[in-house]
């Protein structure tokens, strides 16, 4: 990372911040779609992502064709871990344990990416990360304690379903941590790969994976909406608009922005910027409810953002992703 200028790092920080603000919609939109299963939301989102990627790929010329031929296996791996399986587990968590609690668990991703990323890249001295990581950890703990303590409204569900929802959210954390670090390493090794073009190629892989799983989803009955208490069917038009927003904006556009950030920042700095998604997700859900978060959670959010800003402004040691046997084996 030592060869990057301050301007390039600023561009990366801005791109990562906007990506996080957009990704926060992924927590809100399922809440606005009562009656639709997590499988239906996931399938709709990634079919839309695949479709817009196919259109862009058709007009992308030889650059995208070469990119697909050379890296289709990597694109498929990222499509599974960073998109389809990750978001399916996230939506399951939202469905079973609620959006705020799921947001809390997903909020661990910045810490796991930052710490493991620094272990592999050596971009920062560990003592310089103690304060910002501690601030983020305290902020997440405060928000978590208040949420689980009942300071914010949650829906009443059986304990078993809540446990399954938490497990789904933890699984999403593990998948996205691998994807985030592997994608950063890939872009570091292939600086010629454009962020938007790579988002398009991953979108093609996402669409293929989604189409392959479509028969199973249809046979399971999870694609059919549930009727509300009064017997009316959920709004199909609202569902179509929602999955288009998820597929085109939240998936394709935000992934392209994230690729720009990953290519211009250390994995640690980029990982910490994921906290923007956490804070945005909370803000959107509370805004939709028409309520304010408890004061303690506001303090927690402030600590998280302060920690993020401290990491983004830290000077790097010039380290690059570690070329270790573990790195090659696990992170492509």
3D architecture notes:
The chain has 332 residues and is mainly α. The chain has 14 helices and no strands. It has helices at 6-23, 25-28, 38-58, 61-97, 99-106, 109-121, 126-148, 159-189, 195-219, 236-264, 267-273, 275-289, 295-312, 325-330. α3 (38-58) crosses α9 (195-219), α9 (195-219) packs antiparallel against α10 and α11 (267-273) runs antiparallel to α13 (295-312). The two termini are 19 Å apart.
Structural class: mainly alpha
Provide the low-confidence segments as ranges: 319-326
Order of helices and strands: HHHHHHHHHHHHHH
Provide the β-strand percentage band.
under 5%
Number of strands: 0
Q: Total number of helical segments?
A: 14
Mean pLDDT: 84
End-to-end span in angstroms?
A: 19 Å
Helix content: over 70%
The biggest beta sheet is recorded as: none
Basic shape = globular
Write a compact overview of the structure shown.
77% of the residues lie in helices and 0% in strands.
SSE order and pairing:
Blueprint: H1 6-23, H2 25-28, H3 38-58, H4 61-97, H5 99-106, H6 109-121, H7 126-148, H8 159-189, H9 195-219, H10 236-264, H11 267-273, H12 275-289, H13 295-312, H14 325-330
Helix pairs in contact: 1-10, 1-12, 3-4, 3-9, 3-10, 4-5, 4-8, 4-9, 5-8, 5-12, 6-8, 6-11, 7-13, 9-10, 11-13
């Amino acid at each position: 990372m030592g060869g990057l200028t301050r301007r390039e790092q600023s561009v990366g920080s801005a791109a990562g911040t906007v990506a996080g603000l957009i990704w926060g919609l992924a927590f809100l939109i399922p809440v606005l779609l009562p009656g639709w299963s997590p499988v239906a939301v996931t399938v709709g989102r990634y079919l839309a992502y695949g479709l817009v990627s196919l259109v862009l790929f058709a007009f992308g010329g030889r650059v995208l064709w070469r990119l697909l031929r050379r890296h289709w296996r990597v694109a498929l791996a990222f499509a599974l871990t960073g998109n389809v399986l990750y978001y399916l587990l996230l939506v399951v968590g939202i469905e079973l344990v609620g959006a705020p609690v799921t947001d809390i668990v997903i909020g661990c991703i910045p810490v796991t990416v930052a710490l493991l990323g620094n272990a592999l890249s050596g971009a920062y001295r560990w003592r310089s990360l103690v304060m910002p990581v501690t601030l983020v950890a305290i902020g997440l703990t405060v928000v978590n304690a208040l949420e689980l303590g009942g300071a914010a409204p949650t829906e009443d569900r059986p304990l078993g379903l809540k446990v399954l929802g938490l497990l789904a959210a933890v699984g999403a954390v593990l998948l996205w941590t691998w994807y985030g670090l592997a994608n950063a390493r890939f872009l570091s090794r292939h600086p010629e790969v454009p962020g938007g073009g790579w988002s398009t190629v991953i979108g093609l892989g996402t669409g293929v994976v989604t189409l392959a799983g479509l028969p199973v989803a249809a046979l399971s009955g999870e694609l059919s909406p549930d009727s509300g208490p009064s017997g009316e069917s959920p709004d199909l038009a609202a569902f179509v608009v929602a999955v288009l927003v998820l597929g085109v904006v939240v998936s394709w556009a935000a992934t392209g922005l994230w690729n720009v950030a990953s290519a211009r920042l250390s994995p640690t700095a980029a990982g910490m910027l994921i906290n923007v998604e956490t804070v945005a997700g909370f803000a959107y859900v509370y805004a939709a409810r028409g309520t304010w978060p408890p004061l303690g959670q506001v303090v927690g959010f402030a600590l998280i953002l302060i920690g993020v800003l401290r990491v983004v402004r830290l000077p790097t040691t010039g380290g690059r992703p570690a070329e270790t046997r573990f790195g090659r084996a696990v992170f492509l």
